[in-house]
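Supplementary Methods S3. Complex input for the CO-5-methoxybenzimidazolylcobamide-bound model.
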Amino acid sequence: MNRFDEISALLQKGRPRELSALVKEELEDGTSANDILLKALIPGMSIVGERFKKNEIFVPEVLITARAMNAALNILKPVLAQAGVEPVGTAIICTVKGDLHDIGKNLVKMMIEGTGIRVIDLGVDCPPERVVEAVKEYHPDIVCLSALLTTTMVNQKATIDALKEAGLRDQVKVMVGGAPVTQAFADEIGADAYTPDAATAAEVARAYFN
Ligand code: B1M
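Predicted complex, serialized as structure tokens:
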């Protein structure tokens, strides 16, 4: 078994301590944080998703792997983030109302932070009115909305509508993403950008400041 497979296996078994140790070791050996993410952690999480879909594992097991994933992401965070650089702007990010999935959101947050943008994280299950309040409070340049469920994608639209009603829509770029979200859906709800993954989200966010 190679190191990426070992990392993936520890993630799937939900072993945060051993996983974190191996991720640290891999970084110390010179492997890039991006490779660890794209070749070990994300493929590991996809396998978990497939097994969940087939009812081979259930919510408690998935929660355990999600905790392990977040532990590994915390180790990659300082490597992905650019230290000591004055932020070029501000983004707020959340997972929309009704939705508790935060791994993708956390990843998008880290990658955007890595481009030198300050990111304010409103967490999960975030109602549209909380986003409106945060836009009034922090005056962000970008609002990032993540949704992982077909039943909660509609709350990306509800959030955009709430920003319109509050007269704030034109002050921010709204970016949407998450596994069920598509470019067509983003166009339909009037988002400024859809991106399929965290790296592209970071590129698009940074491009707003170029
Ligand atoms: Co949930 N879950 N889950 N789950 N879960 C999915 C999403 C599901 C596809 C599983 C399946 O059936 N195969 C399915 C959704 C089906 C659907 O609606 N189409 C599902 C379901 C049904 C549910 C519950 C309803 C299950 C139940 O209770 N019966 C329930 C809902 C709870 C709720 O939210 N109200 C539920 C619960 C959970 C857990 C709590 C157990 C756990 C979440 C823990 C946590 O996040 N802290 C969980 C998990 C872990 C998953 C899977 C297995 C993995 C999600 C993940 O973290 N992927 C997932 C199956 C899957 O996706 N294969 C599944 C890794 C992550 C890196 O990818 O989040 O897609 P992702 O993010 C990507 C891109 O989407 C993108 O960038 C990231 C990477 O580059 N991206 C953005 C994300 N947000 C973005 C925002 C952007 C741009 C890009 O711009 C702003």
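The longest helix spans residues 59-80. The chain is about 55% helix and 10% strand.
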